[in-house]
Amino acid sequence: MTDWLRPHPIIPVVVADRSDIGADLAQALDAGGIACAEITLRTPHALELLTAMSTGAPHGFAIGAGTVLDEEQVDRAADAGATFIVSPGYDQAVVDRARARGLAVLPGVATASEVQRARRDGLDAVKLFPADRLGGLAMIEALAAVFPDVGFVPSGGVGPDNAAAYLAHPAVPAVSGSWLAPRRELDAGDLSGVTERSRAALRARAAA
Predict the structure, then answer these.
(1) pLDDT band at 2 (very low <50, low <70, confident <90, very high)
(2) Residue 78 CB coordination number (10 Å)
(3) What is the rounded distance in angstroms from the CA atom of residue 66 to the CA atom of residue 98?
(4) Mind telling me the catalytic residues?
(5) What are the distances in angstroms from CA 47 to CA 39, 41, 88, 108, 143?
(6) What are phi and psi of 154, to 5 degrees?
(7) pLDDT for 207 beyond 90
(8) Which DSSP symbol is given to 154?
(9) What's the pLDDT tens digit per position in 113-164?
(10) What are 37-61's pLDDT values in tens digits?
């Protein structure tokens, strides 16, 4: 499975309207055992937050950019300190630019045709999005049966009630979701629950 995903079975999806919490958020996640975060490029200050996290995070903490839709966003994310790129769909230009910039890339897929295309392009992990709308574990089981050498990272509808069940499946190297750091709390500057939710997620994974 993709080497960069091995240390990161849970990828927090961060959507926030402020950037001054970057370093503290990285520290809070790291204290809970989560050493990565995906900053979605859906808010005006997302790149500033990405920069703040990449400069203030503990050593070894992986920062990614999510909801990346084009080559320009790949470049801007790379310049801000991202080490991996996540996109909602499969865009060849995004994949190629991310690779050219030396970034790991996790493109979104929703069909077997897209998985086959990713595999042909040399990728061994993809994001299944939106996972809950596509059938969740049942969809992953169906795809894994014909693509046994591809890992599926479910995103969309993933939370504390089903993350461990996803991670128990051998075709799932990681899950991504926003429940560890909810947008409402981040925008209020409240990071008090981030560390404990991170620890709880890892405990649930270990017990699955």
Answers:
(1) confident
(2) 18
(3) 12
(4) 38, 127
(5) 8, 7, 18, 21, 34
(6) -70, 140
(7) no
(8) E
(9) 999 999 999 999 999 999 999 999 999 999 999 999 999 999 999 999 999 9
(10) 999 999 999 999 999 999 999 999 9
Q: Place 3 in a pLDDT band, splitting at 50, 70 and 90.
A: confident
DSSP string computed for 9-72: SEEEEE--S-STTHHHHHHHHHHTT--EEEEETTSTTHHHHHHHHHHHSPTT-EEEEES--SHH
Cα angle: 42, vertex 30, 208; to 5 degrees: 95
Give the span between the Cα atoms of 153 and 111, in whole angstroms. 14
Q: Determine contact, residues 71/92, Cβ cutoff 8 Å.
A: no
Question: What's 198's DSSP letter?
Answer: H
For the chain, give the mean pLDDT: 96
Residue pair 150/143 in contact by the 8 Å Cβ criterion: yes
pLDDT at res. 160? 96
Instruction: Report residue 28 as tokens.
Output: 């809070």
- Cα 81 from Cα 61, distance rounded (Å): 11
Cβ neighbours, 10 Å, residue 44: 10
Q: Is 22 exposed, middle or buried (0-12, 13-18, 19+ CB in 10 A)?
A: buried
